[in-house]
Each structure stands twice: as structure tokens, then as C-alpha cells.
């Protein structure tokens, strides 16, 4: 299955803070996707992490959320494992979920353990598909 621009929840832009997209237009590398035309309620989110976290106690948590409106209140439908330095990065994770609502986004939560505002991870791609790979 090929991925295209219409299936990208996060495009690999370096993550330095929490991201929760509220628009179909990409900001900080993330956007909401309108899945109304897919006619699939069973979907697969793919999380590909190209680089490890910089510091030992930093964490990266990615959840998939859905909503009836692009700027409404999103509800979690799937959660990837909590990632920390040295645990499965670089790596590829996939998770199945069901959505009957129109919009889907990836919510990215980061914890900068030393509160030094120096959290950074590059090479994170979050893609939407219909099949496990």
C-alpha cells in the first residue's frame, strides 16, 4: 500500500513540544485528516520513528483521536506504546482502530524530563492506511 500526502498525520518534522492538530492544514508537521470518503471504519495508523530520543527520561506518547468536526473535541481511539530513550527506536509500530467519525488526528505528547526545554526527536512519521504492513 502506497502512502501519499492525503494519508499523513505527521510528516517527519522535528518534534520539540506537544502537538494536537486542529486543522486540515499542516502546522508543526501535523494535520487532521478527513476520512469521510474512505468508506472504511477499520483503519491502521503507522508510527515510524527514525531517531531515538535525546535524553534518558524523555518520553514520546502518540495517540490517535477522532471527532465529528475538524475543530471539535477529539476523543482517543487508539494509543501507541509509550516510547523512551532506548526502547524501540528507531522502530515501526502499527495499531488498528475503528472510527465512524469524519476527522482523525495524531496527538503527540512529549515529556522533557529535565524541564530544560530541550526535547527533540526527528524522523517521526505518522501515516494512515487500511492494512497492516
Task: Describe, in plain words, how this protein is organized in 3D.
Helix content is 0%, strand content 41%. It is an all-beta fold. It has a single domain, classed as Jelly Rolls (Sandwich), CATH 2.60.120.1110. The strands form two sheets. Strands 2, 3, 5, 6, 7 and 9 form a six-stranded antiparallel sheet that branches. It has a four-stranded antiparallel sheet with strand order 1-10-4-8, with no helix packed on it. A hairpin with a 7-residue loop joins strand 5 (59-67) and strand 6. The termini are close together. The model has no long low-confidence stretch (mean pLDDT 87).
Highlighted features:
133 residues, mainly beta, Jelly Rolls, 6-stranded antiparallel beta sheet, 10 strands, 0% helix, 41% strand, globular
CATH architecture: Sandwich
**What is the C-alpha radius of gyration, as a whole number of Å?**
14 Å
Major sheet summary line? 6 strands, antiparallel
Give the overall silhouette.
Answer: globular
Beta-strand portion reads 35-45%
Question: Averaging pLDDT over every residue, what do you get?
Answer: 87
SSE order, one letter for each helix or strand: EEEEEEEEEE
CATH topology: Jelly Rolls
Low-confidence stretches: none
Overall number of domains: 1
| Helix fraction bin | under 10%
Q: CATH class, anyone?
A: Mainly Beta
Annotation, overall tally of beta strands: 10
Distance between the termini: 8 Å
